[in-house]
Amino acid sequence: QGNMAFAGKYEFEGDENYDEFVTKIGLPSDKIEMGRNCKIVTEVVQNGNDFTWTQHFPGGRTTTNTFTIGKEADMETMGGRKFKATVKMEDGKIVAEFPNYRHTAEVSGGKLVEISTSSGVVYKRTSKKIA
């Protein structure tokens, strides 16, 4: 059924349009520098429709979002802002509406592909599975 497809650990491999996107969503320049080509490790624990999505940043900082598909959850953005969102599943992709962008995640060819869109700017981050 493929709904366990997300579980695993993924290491940042590459991205597109990073600077344009983070400038568009108003990330401060120190955060922009910190995140550029950052070897983020994304760890996904999945139990049916329940997810724990953790991003490990170099230097020991982590961000964890815990959510259930179709239910409102407390979330945190790239920039550390907290908000509420209902995460959906559409065509095998996880879809979350953040305050100023739309984020999708899917596993394709053994890679975690995340796409964020804000006012026509599309940021794509690809991570390879390492565990």
From TrEMBL:
GO terms for molecular function: lipid binding. It is found in: Cytoplasm. Residues 8-25 form the Cytosolic fatty-acid binding proteins domain. One of its GO terms (cellular component) is cytoplasm. The keyword Metal-binding does not apply. It comes from the Eukaryota. InterPro entries: Calycin (IPR012674), Fatty_acid-bd (IPR000463), ILBP (IPR031259). Keywords: Cytoplasm, Lipid-binding, Transport. Belongs to the calycin superfamily. Fatty-acid binding protein (FABP) family. This is FABP6 protein. It comes from Pedionomus torquatus.
